[in-house]
Amino acid sequence: MSTQVTATCPGCSCLCDDIEVVIEESEIREVGNACRKGASLFLNPDHPAYDLDAAIDEAIEILKNAKSPAIFGLDNTTIEAQRIAIKISEKLGCMIEDYSSIRYGDLLNFVVSSRIKTCTLDDVRDRADISIFWGSDAMSSQPRHLSRFSYFPRGEHKQKGWEFDRYAISIDIYRSPTAKVCREFLKVSPGQDPALMDEILGILSGKPPGSKELLKFSNEIKKADFGVIFAGSGLIHGLNRDMDKLIWFMEGLNEYGEFYLIPMVKGYNMRGFVEMMKRAQRQIEGSFLRALLDGGIDAALIVGADPMSDLPYSLSKKLLDIQTIVIDPRDTPTTEIADLVIHTGIAGVDNGGSAMRMDGVEFELVPCIKRDTPSDEAVLTRILEGL
Amino acid sequence: MPTPMEVYQLLPMTNCKKCGESTCMAFAVKLIRGEVGLEACTPLFEEDRYKDKLSKLQELFETVEGATETGLVIDTDKCTGCGNCVVACPVNVANDPHGTAVGRGPTNDRVILRVKDGVVVASNVHECRRFGKNRILCDLCIVTCPSGAIEFV
Ligand code: SF4
Ligand code: SF4
Ligand code: SF4
Ligand code: SF4
């Protein structure tokens, strides 16, 4: 006998909540609506059994003996697990960090504290006239973003269809898959993003445009009542992390219509981590990489992250010199080099919890099958208790 | 696609009406549009003298491997399951206004494109706008695909 449940996908910060999962004899047989990246999480087989008690004891031992441990990752785990990880960092008096400051500088803080105007993806679907993907290749990182929210769907005030109702543009240093499907592509040379912002606001205030594309884009901005910048890490690099420039540009755009910004965070729950740190009145210091490079860390508890793949080798190789505990459902280059790996279940598939979509809307991840694999939250709770 | 004349010349050209059409030419036109199947022309299959014509016709209308009846081919290796085509397809929008039209998964079985196990699958292809009497050269599923996974052959 087969049953069908609707699930929420933890594959990326879109947290698609329309995933149809067909279950037969306690196994997932079919996954509908999830993209390839998301479906692979649901169709992944369980991990072989291992001695969880021994692994947790060993993790506690490593953390107790470390002089300067650090907790890192956390963008791909639940809010509940993030909260416990923050508590562990308080208990150990140690650094806790995710990728938010590494990839986006202060952007997330500015958005979370409303210093940059933001909106929800549902607003985007229902109202956005113009979607600007700046330094972000959504088609690769958040595959259903354009089809669910930012370009193709009809929405409450968008009934005519994307060809007539919406304008999408990709601004990037290369023609990404996102650029291929957008109406327009504006190539920006590396580091020239501030100059491009100057030029756009200049044209809007009447200066002659430097190119046809820029003129068209400026006209679309003028026409739009509601526009959104989907900011990728490429924009932050291009701005050399200059948030004042971005704030100035957003204010400039808002002279012509309502313009918002949504950070296209990687990791399905980066937004959640930033919020949880704010609620715990903790700063994301942005000093993990420096400390790793300078030998200021002797043990790392890495949760739901793969720094061996994400960081340049000059940095990631430092992980080989220190004790590493990796809590992750996946097998990754980082689990390969770890001193201790604790395989956990996937939230939304094997375990429950909650997470925040890139726009800050919270979703519940309800497990769709029953397996014995522990959740990140359960493992971290036992580590906290043992410390 | 072959022309009606090319197809006509491969038919028995007797206007016997067994297929339900008044002439072989009318049958040829419907055959090309995909509105009728070759098997409706029974003389082709029953009479030995049409053997060569039959095999040529079968070759002509043999669907490309993996292609659906409208010639829609999906390269599942390239497809990322992003759903752009699913949401952009005008037939999906018309037949499923509360599901695919608003960016969600389909709420009924009347859609052409849907994503299953991470890649697009097609059904109800006879409803595709490129097919049937009032066909138009719709290419919305092609232009919205970031990976070139959809083709019509
Ligand atoms: S877009 Fe993201 S959340 Fe949605 S199905 Fe794909 S991986 Fe999962
Ligand atoms: S059955 Fe065949 S031969 Fe007879 S009219 Fe139709 S197409 Fe022509
Ligand atoms: S050609 Fe048009 S109608 Fe046919 S499947 Fe593609 S989008 Fe839909
Ligand atoms: S648009 Fe292309 S990649 Fe996306 S689901 Fe359709 S066929 Fe697959």
Automatic annotation (TrEMBL), chain A:
GO MF, one example: formylmethanofuran dehydrogenase activity
Q: Which Gene3D superfamilies has this protein been placed in?
A: Dimethylsulfoxide Reductase, domain 2
**Taxonomic superkingdom:** Archaea
Which GO BP terms sit in this record?
A: methanogenesis
Name the record gives this protein: Formylmethanofuran dehydrogenase subunit B
Species whose genome carries this gene: Candidatus Syntropharchaeum butanivorans
Organism classification: Archaea, Methanobacteriati, Methanobacteriota, Stenosarchaea group, Methanomicrobia
UniProtKB/TrEMBL annotation, chain B:
Q: One GO MF term, please?
A: 4 iron, 4 sulfur cluster binding
Taxonomic lineage from the root: Archaea, Methanobacteriati, Methanobacteriota, Stenosarchaea group, Methanomicrobia
Q: Which UniProt keywords apply?
A: 4Fe-4S, Iron, Iron-sulfur, Metal-binding
List the InterPro entries hit by this protein, alphabetically: 4Fe-4S_dom, 4Fe4S_Fe-S-bd, 4Fe4S_Fe_S_CS, ACDS_complex_subunit
Native species = Candidatus Syntropharchaeum butanivorans
Q: What is this protein called?
A: 4Fe-4S dicluster domain-containing protein
Keyword Iron-sulfur belongs to the record: yes
Q: Name one Pfam family in it.
A: Fer4
Q: Does Metal-binding show up as a keyword for this record? A: yes
The 4Fe-4S domain, residue ranges: 1-59
Domain spans labelled 4Fe-4S ferredoxin-type: 70-99
